[in-house]
């Protein structure tokens, strides 16, 4: 069979159900082979960056690698931002990238760049297929690499001539990923550390969500009775009303959790990725750390590891819960939990009226109050991302998608497609600024073509608000951070989707309820700020 046909069989063997991408001359053999697959849906998108964002969000929600596809040269470089985002946010992703015939791999050739070297720094591995007989091995290795802890991106580069050559070897068997657990001595050391301290503070990251260890974490928290704070990407690990929930940490400014962390005598960091916030921000006092993660602790002056439990986080927490953990009940001074809730505007419900101007915190509270428990909220990057990280309280984990590693503008609209294809029965809502919205607005056509249903909320203030604030603070004036916008409602109409404009909270709530009550199609609500 042709190598392209084998590649499709390998992808089917890995459980791939959808591939996002754009066809090009160098990968036409693969696209033609995909057309024969009854398992894999090829989704033609409008921009390769959107394809990578779709695969990123799909991978986070589906629990398996999302796959994106491009041709060589500009197609490959267009993928780069989305692939980098998946890598830093530890989302499993496979990038299949076309390349020129190997006979053209020289200094100067049309559309030729050294793609393996371009992608090597932003992936866990970048492999170019030269011998088609190695294709099955390379695909199996790349999927294993992308999904094993910590997950990330892997790139497979496919020269045009390779895809049409004849191969005889079959796909490799997919075997379970290996799991490691801490030694008994390591658990005893950790238990001694916990027993010896008086004021442990738990800092929880997205590794707990990836390991499906939220239940084990809640058992640990209920036993220790110590305060807990989570990173942006770990929202939803504790219910809002939980007395040990001290909400989100990791803000550059006004991080209200820091006084509580500074009172602790032991920090228990569970599944926290430094890429979300370096410890130099939240552990200036260099408090001792009990490191619980799938990987050994990174060496860092502000992360002094007193003990570490390395291995499968779910099993590790089970071992701790079975070891007779002592209660370490304490509360930071000054009613800190109440201070945080007030500062972050948590549960400060407001009855909207036709006169109330739009304010993002109140918009988030309306979404939180009216949405189903399993609703997925996707945040683009901008000032609203900070508001979402502070104020919005999801009812379940892994239902608030925030790009916080690369912090990538433009992820929200294509992310909706990845979310809806991974979780077709869930309500999906994107919140994006006007800057991020127009970066990948064209993917609305892709979603409409697929018959998907979700909500896009566009904050229209004609500026990069976060940068405006930063420049005003630093220079006392702004430059180059404002612009003019098109009519978003007319743009929605041109894509044949529902467009509404809300200038008050009352108008927004009515529009949001109308979206929830409808069953089909895409709705765009423009928030006039």
Give the helix/strand class.
alpha/beta
Supply the CATH superfamily name of the largest domain: Thiamin diphosphate (ThDP)-binding fold, Pyr/PP domains
Gap from first CA to last CA: 58 Å
For this structure, the CATH topology of the largest domain is Rossmann fold
Taken from the alpha-carbon principal axes, the silhouette is globular
InterPro entries: DHS-like_NAD/FAD-binding_dom, THDP-binding, Thiamin_PyroP_enz_cen_dom, Thiamin_PyroP_enz_TPP-bd_dom, TPP-bd_CS, TPP_enz, TPP_enzyme_TPP-bd
Domain Thiamine pyrophosphate enzyme N-terminal TPP-binding: 1-108
Protein name: Acetolactate synthase large subunit
Domain Thiamine pyrophosphate enzyme central: 187-320
Can you walk through the features of this model?
- Belongs to the TPP enzyme family.
- GO terms for molecular function: acetolactate synthase activity; flavin adenine dinucleotide binding; magnesium ion binding; thiamine pyrophosphate binding.
- Residues 380-526 form the Thiamine pyrophosphate enzyme TPP-binding domain.
- By secondary structure, the chain is an alpha/beta fold.
- It folds into three domains: 3-164, Rossmann fold; 184-334, TPP-binding domain (Rossmann fold), CATH 3.40.50; 345-528, Rossmann fold (3-Layer(aba) Sandwich).
- It contains 22 helices and 18 strands.
- The strands form three sheets. The protein has a six-stranded parallel sheet, with helices on both faces.
- The longest helix is centred in the N-terminal third of the chain and has 15 residues, at 48-62.
- The protein is globular and about 70 Å long.
- The mean pLDDT is 94.
